[in-house]
From TrEMBL:
PROSITE patterns: VOC
Alphabetical list of SUPFAM superfamilies matching this protein: Glyoxalase/Bleomycin resistance protein/Dihydroxybiphenyl dioxygenase (SSF54593)
Protein name, entry field: VOC family protein
Residue intervals passing through the bilayer: none
Pfam family name, one: Glyoxalase
Domain VOC span(s) in chain numbering: 2-123
Length: 135
């Protein structure tokens, strides 16, 4: 099997609100749109996104009323501080401020209007793992 594209499909209450959030703040472009549906793509290596309205009949009955929850959409970036400031200046809510975990993960989180959690991550070498210099 050879994968050509990865797409994350999320069921939300307000498709337009999620679409607009990802277009404005993360550089996505709308590729296909219909009532209760929006497909977004990105020029870079980011995952494609599809937003479906809760209750939409194209979904199987047991999936129609589910809501995107319990997941974190994580984007690995460089210049994490600048990204946090850019998003804050653009009015995106910073729901978890920048922090650094002991294993070298630096991150912060925002949420789209439907509650989809977006985490921006930058990896650094933890202080205890820095290579020793040869003297």
């Amino acid at each position: 099997m050879q994968l050509s594209t990865t797409t994350l499909s999320l069921t939300v209450d307000d498709v337009a609100a999620s679409r607009d959030f990802f277009v404005r703040h993360f550089g996505y472009k709308t590729t296909v749109e219909a009532d209760g549906f929006a497909s977004l793509s990105h020029e870079g290596p980011a995952v494609d996104l599809v937003f479906l309205a809760r209750g939409i009949e194209v979904l199987p009955p047991d999936q129609r009323d589910q809501h995107a929850a319990g997941l974190i959409l994580a984007f690995t970036v460089t210049g994490l501080e600048a990204e946090q400031e850019r998003l804050r200046a653009e009015g995106a809510p910073i729901t978890m401020p920048l922090r650094e975990d002991p294993w070298g993960e630096r991150l912060f989180q925002t949420k789209d209007p439907n509650g989809v959690v977006v985490q921006l991550v930058e990896w650094v070498t933890p202080a205890g793992d820095a290579p020793e210099s040869a003297d």
